[in-house]
Amino acid sequence: MASDPSTAVTAASGFRPALIVVDMQEDFCPPNGSLAVTDGRTIVPLINTLLALPSLVLRIGTRDWHPPNHISFASNHPSAQPFVDTATIVNPHNPAERYQTRLWPVHCVADTPGAALVPELDAARLDAVIDKGTDPRVEMYSAFYDPLRAPRVSDTGLADALRKARVTHVYVVGLAGDYCVRSTVVDAHAEGFETYVVAEGTRPVDVGGWEACKVQIEGAGVRVVSVESEEVRRLFS
């Protein structure tokens, strides 16, 4: 099979970009999603444009893929209210390690319609789809791994996949900007990749806090860039 000349030029320049499309699932999108993000569906055309770019060496999609008894569901905690209440996550292998997590409505239960990728997403272009949040004991926003470290409970293998493809730069789009996108980009940067959030390609749960969240993301070493920026335009060249 003949190689794509655009990809060959990209590789020769030392620029090997990957696109991660985070959680473009029915339950995160209006009009019927149980945890619908405002305007979440409107970002799909831009994501499809990016997916079609031949300069990308890897295209990864992610899905929340929860069991019904997942710890993040408010319905699994007596009297708890979604969005308002929190739960304590305890490392099942190390009770001394724990953290608080926000509780949500039931969403993206594995093998249900709400967990499906939205049909307008050009999912055929994805090289792989990674499922996360599969362990009922642990909340996992990041496409890489859960936030527990001593020891870690879940690891999707995404970092290894990016390294195997010799990726240098990671571009991230999808839902939601202030949760799963944020955690994914922070971990991508920590793994040593030059990392970008494409601002027009994501939407947050908490719209009022999004500007402050972007400042925190950039404080972690990640760039939040416009689709018109030099960093994104580089993908089109």
UniProtKB/TrEMBL annotation:
One of its GO terms (molecular function) is metal ion binding. It is an enzyme of class 3 (hydrolase). GO terms for biological process: pyridine nucleotide biosynthetic process. Its EC number is 3.5.1.19. The keyword Metal-binding applies. Residues 18-228 form the Isochorismatase-like domain. SUPFAM superfamilies: Isochorismatase-like hydrolases. InterPro entries: Isochorismatase-like_dom, Isochorismatase-like_sf, Isochorismatase_Nicotinamidase. The keyword Metal-binding applies. Pathway: Cofactor biosynthesis; nicotinate biosynthesis; nicotinate from nicotinamide: step 1/1. Keywords: Hydrolase, Metal-binding, Pyridine nucleotide biosynthesis. Belongs to the isochorismatase family. This is nicotinamidase. The lineage of its organism: Eukaryota, Fungi, Dikarya, Ascomycota, Pezizomycotina.
